[in-house]
Amino acid sequence: MCTILFAWQQNSDYPLLLAANRDEFYQRPTAPAAWHGDVFSGIDLLAGGTWLGLHKNGRFAAVTNYREIPLQHQDKSRGALPMAFLNSTQTPEQYCTALMATQHDYGPFNLLACDGHSLWYMSNRGAAPKALAPGIYGMSNGLLNDPWPKVVRGRAAFAKHLQASDDELFALLHDTYQPNDSELPDTGVGIELERRVAPLFIRSEEYGTRCSSIVRLHTNGAWQMVEQSWGPDGEPSGPRRSSI
Predict the structure, then answer these.
(1) Is the pLDDT reported for residue 11 higher than 70?
(2) CA gyration radius for the chain?
(3) Which domains are seen in the chain, by residue range?
(4) 197 Cβ partners below 8 Å, 6+ apart?
């Protein structure tokens, strides 16, 4: 998962509304979103775990990687982090606080965890666990609300779509706008790669936006997730999959 836009306690109908794109190599084996026991999520078939999912008992979690050079190899997959929270009984605060002790056993990550009552964020690249205040947020492969073009542009658009349909939110996530080089972050990967991954929706033959997800927490405490997969041409790949 490479970009997550979300509104926390900004909508009378949906205390949490979230729209996200997962960017990955097309050759990496992945199972699309489905129910796996009590968890609805996609599955990374190479390393295990997931990038985003929800539990039928009212829990949600998502993770993005943090881009840095040199890349660090870790024994534990960050995809295990959302799954561990979803299958636990800990509050977001308890889970994130406990994770501090082993956070550097995992690759660079940003993590969101929510139980419907509180929403917590942390990163093992310099962001201690904290409860998020009501607001509109964006997270890509830097820290929360880092002003990358796709995050700034995405948050501004998302703020105008808090009552939007799934179709409208998927269209928002399908934004291929290419920022000017002067706006791009310098994460050490070189300008060519910075350009390639700068749009909110990435298209190329080898690497791109493979799926988009819409997550809604309803006022009655029910969660809903819808996922759409995409091919290298940016066109839908298969039907939408819903937790309902």
Answers:
(1) yes
(2) 16
(3) 3-242 (3.60.60.10)
(4) 2, 23, 207
